[in-house]
């Protein structure tokens, strides 16, 4: 069929009428047809070699099977267990009294509204994400009256939940900050060392938890951060420390702030549980606000996975507080250079839900009520588990269950006792003895208490 005449086809016609081009095409077609009809007849210099990928040997044959993730792997094991009494207390994900995942009513309502808005489209977001989401997220954590926000000293970039925000922040620091060492608490969320190492930072730890008291090792913390080289980065859990459930008191936070500022250490807050520690968004932001109020610089990774139940939507933000509006805008331009080659720009849906809730005072109030209900249910579970162990006369002091804060109890069970719980009682938790209190219900507390009692009396 003769092609239509337009510029492109004219070029094609000219190309095909070029004798050298048409003879090269002819040669290749002949080679290909010879090979297909009888591969042995193809002459040596025209044969199509068999690619190594077509052989039976895999180029990945040398790979060793990687271990499952210490936290998410617990869910993998749980899913394989056919027992009807199995209980997943591994991952920090909220469950209802019926043991079901929860989508907040306010989230469902906003999602309906978003779906019905015909004017919405699926265009790419800017590299920094939904502008309103960023503004409102900064206000949520720093406070609406924060001087840093009023002075335009805050750069906020929508990222892929808390993990993505930490990673982008880590890479930004590895590229542009003069000191490449980050101090993380011992213990901390298991993903922290991997995130920061892969971001290009060197990871060291500072003492945080005293197993003997099941409380904060405040002396150890001050000593370790006091001897960190000036300028080092310090990872701090904004509230509801994971996995210990132990937070500094407001007075201890003030001492930590003075130490960091006097040594020019750079704070990097991880805020994954705002609202889950006390039930109040403002109270849980107090430590962060203390550090912003002194006019100093800091980074903050924020997640809406837990407090809005948006786990799989991957909604979060990285905020960087700088000394001036001018620096903040240059910081933003450089953060964009980190994001663009990594994932280009963030997803729309989850951030639109958050922005809609934070923008509207009725929706916001509804959210705070649902959030408080989640936090309260966890506190009730703490009391019920403590009472159940008391009534069984389980040896040991279990008061840390009601003293610890947030989603987790750091039980003090050792790795053998944990594997006993899993093998004998089908209760799944991380090997460090952390249990997600949000995965418990009044119905399952007795089963867990029986298991803990058996573990500490027999293992
Ligand atoms: N920081 C902390 C302290 C944290 O516990 C988590 C998640 C995150 C950040 C990241 O959450 P994201 O979903 O990226 O916003 N912790 C729970 C889930 C997990 O391990 O991924 C957990 O510890 O069970």
From TrEMBL:
This protein's name = Aspartate aminotransferase
Q: Assembly state and interactors?
A: Homodimer.
Q: Which GO terms describe its biological process?
A: amino acid metabolic process
UniProt keyword Metal-binding, yes or no: no
List required co-factors. pyridoxal 5'-phosphate
Provide one Gene Ontology cellular component.
mitochondrion
Q: Please list the GO terms describing molecular function.
A: L-aspartate:2-oxoglutarate aminotransferase activity; pyridoxal phosphate binding
- Map out region (Disordered) in residue numbers: 1-22
Q: What is the lineage of its organism?
A: Eukaryota, Viridiplantae, Streptophyta, Embryophyta, Tracheophyta
Q: What is its EC number?
A: 2.6.1.1
Q: What family does the entry list?
A: Belongs to the class-I pyridoxal-phosphate-dependent aminotransferase family.
PANTHER family named in the record: ASPARTATE AMINOTRANSFERASE, ASPARTATE AMINOTRANSFERASE 3, CHLOROPLASTIC
* Presence of the UniProt keyword Membrane in the record: no
| Gene3D superfamilies in the cross-refs | Aspartate Aminotransferase, domain 1 (3.90.1150.10), Type I PLP-dependent aspartate aminotransferase-like (Major domain) (3.40.640.10)
Record's Pfam families? Answer: Aminotran_1_2
Q: InterPro entries from the entry?
A: Aminotransferase_I/II_large, Asp_trans, NHTrfase_class1_PyrdxlP-BS, PyrdxlP-dep_Trfase, PyrdxlP-dep_Trfase_major, PyrdxlP-dep_Trfase_small
User: Which keywords are on file for this protein?
Assistant: Aminotransferase, Pyridoxal phosphate, Transferase
What the entry lists under PROSITE patterns is as follows: AA_TRANSFER_CLASS_1
- Where are stretches of biased composition, namely Low complexity? 1-15
Q: What else is known?
A: In eukaryotes there are cytoplasmic, mitochondrial and chloroplastic isozymes.
Which reaction does this enzyme catalyse, per its entry? L-aspartate + 2-oxoglutarate = oxaloacetate + L-glutamate
Domain (Aminotransferase class I/classII large) spans: 86-452
What is the purpose of this protein?
Important for the metabolism of amino acids and Krebs-cycle related organic acids. In plants, it is involved in nitrogen metabolism and in aspects of carbon and energy metabolism.
């Amino acid at each position: 069929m003769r092609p239509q005449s337009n510029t492109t086809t004219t070029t094609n016609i000219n190309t095909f009428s070029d004798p050298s081009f048409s003879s090269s095409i002819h040669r290749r077609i002949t080679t290909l047809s010879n090979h297909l009809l009888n591969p042995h007849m193809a002459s040596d210099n025209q044969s199509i070699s068999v690619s190594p990928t077509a052989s039976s040997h895999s180029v990945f044959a040398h790979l060793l099977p990687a271990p499952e993730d210490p936290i998410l792997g617990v869910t993998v094991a749980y899913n394989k267990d056919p027992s009807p009494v199995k209980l997943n207390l591994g991952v920090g994900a909220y469950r209802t009294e019926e043991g079901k995942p929860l989508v907040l009513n306010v989230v469902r309502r906003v999602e309906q509204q978003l779906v019905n808005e015909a004017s919405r489209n699926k265009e790419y977001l800017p590299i920094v994400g939904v502008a309103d989401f960023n503004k409102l997220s900064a206000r949520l954590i720093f406070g609406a009256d924060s001087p840093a926000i009023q002075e335009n000293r805050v750069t906020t970039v929508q990222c892929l939940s808390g993990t993505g925000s930490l990673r982008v922040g880590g890479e930004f620091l590895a590229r542009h900050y003069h000191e490449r060492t980050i101090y993380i608490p011992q213990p901390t969320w298991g993903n922290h060392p991997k995130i920061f190492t892969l971001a290009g930072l060197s990871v060291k730890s500072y003492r945080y938890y005293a197993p003997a008291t099941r409380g904060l090792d405040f002396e150890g913390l001050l000593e370790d951060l006091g001897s960190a080289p000036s300028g080092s980065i310090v990872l701090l859990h904004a509230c509801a420390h994971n996995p210990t459930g132990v937070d500094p008191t407001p007075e201890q936070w003030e001492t930590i702030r003075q130490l960091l500022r006097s040594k020019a250490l750079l704070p990097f807050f991880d805020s994954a549980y705002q609202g889950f520690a006390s039930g109040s968004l403002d109270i849980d932001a107090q430590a962060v606000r203390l550090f912003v109020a002194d006019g100093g610089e800091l980074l903050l990774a924020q997640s809406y996975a837990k407090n809005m139940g948006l786990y799989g939507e991957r909604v979060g933000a990285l905020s960087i507080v700088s000394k001036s509006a001018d620096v903040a805008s240059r910081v933003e331009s450089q953060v964009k250079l980190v994001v663009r080659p990594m994932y280009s720009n963030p997803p729309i849906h989850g951030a639109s839900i958050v922005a809609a809730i934070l923008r509207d005072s009725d929706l916001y109030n509804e959210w705070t009520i649902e959030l408080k209900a989640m936090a309260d249910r966890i506190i009730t579970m703490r009391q019920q588990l403590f009472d159940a162990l008391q009534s069984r006369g389980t040896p040991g002091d279990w008061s840390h269950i009601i003293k610890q804060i947030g989603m987790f109890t750091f039980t003090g069970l050792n790795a053998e006792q944990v594997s006993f719980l899993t093998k004998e009682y089908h209760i799944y938790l991380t090997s460090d003895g952390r249990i997600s209190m949000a995965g418990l219900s009044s119905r399952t507390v007795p089963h867990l208490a029986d298991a803990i009692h058996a573990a500490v009396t027999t293992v």
